[in-house]
Amino acid sequence: MVRRSFDAARRHIRHAGGLTLRRLGLLVDGQPNGLGHDRALLGGSLRGSVLVHFANPPRALYQLRQWYRPLEELHRAHGVTVVTRDSRAAAAIRAESSLPVITIAYHSTLDDLLSRSHVQLVLYVNFFSENFEMLRFSSMQHAALWHGDSDKSVSVSNQVKAFDVNLVPGQAAIDRLAAHLPGFDAESRCVIVGRPQVVGALAHARAPGDRIRVLYAPTWEGGHPSADYGSLESHGAGIVSSLLTSPRIALTYRPHPFSGLRRASFGTADADLRALVKAAASRDRTAGHRVSLGGSLGDDFASADLLITDISSVATDWLATGRPLLVTTPSSPSTVVASTRLLETVPRLPVSALVGLCELVIREVEEDPSAAARASLAEYYLHSTDPAESMARFLAECSRLIALNTHLHPTSKKAHDGGH
Question: What is the rounded distance in angstroms from the CA atom of residue 287 to the CA atom of residue 283?
């Protein structure tokens, strides 16, 4: 009895301390603050048929932001509520979109809300561990949207098996999963919807005499050594320093929001590159060098003539532009690099090739020798470069899943989960 009382007291102190840290904003970076409005939400219900579960802190909002427009269209058709576990993320979503947002701290509150709601479909933009609390509810369809498709090793994950369906951009994702997850029926558990987020990127024309606009958008260091695709430490200084010396090139540097999350040295490298670009922009304000922070990736795509990036979903999405692309070669021996159609088609950029980078960039833009091959890649990875077609496919699949769940669970308002 004494032991149980001691354990209960210890849990209470730990919870109280955690709550204090959350309120003071002193949580470790990457942790949701869990400051919800649970008391006010109890006894209520959610409007609409769709719930988007986003449990991450604000640093991961780039994963959801790209889905704002498709989700707003879906909200008009079926009603969407975004459920967060972080009040800071919720505030940002409210400010940036028209989507209804609530913040929940306790799973019991979510259980209470869903018992009186008619949610038929739950959407997820990542594989964050907190999602698996939501996946417990068995009376609704669970669909993974992903936040981009890439040739990274982490794109082949057993976590896809947790969802009823995965809404993927193109055939490349299905082929990748089928090849590397033999216990997963990729053809039946994946539906191609394209990338409705890729908007505005096709409308671009460089006037004669204009500088070539290069977008350098590296990925982060990855969550583990085999996914260390980021080029900040190995290539970053060489790429930026070289491009800033050319009077024919204007550089946009777009850092990944997670840079430095696992390795502090990546954060230092990012800060150094930002300083280099800002200094060059100050020296020559007509050159057009800039650091892009927080804005739309689509806007950066629309203004760029060539992209330099790492093995990432940025490379895949760029295919919709039809413009030249250079993909860095990872320098870490622990990084897993697959043989893929994209990596076999576009020019690769090892550290050893940085000496002649400016000449390579100019040649790729002016001659573009791999243009035809990239056109077929766009269809394979993205299905269509027409945003309207992708939007229609996305909305149609969500409607199908809602109708399917309504048929499978006509009384889903009752017995809405699989028990504790």
Answer: 9
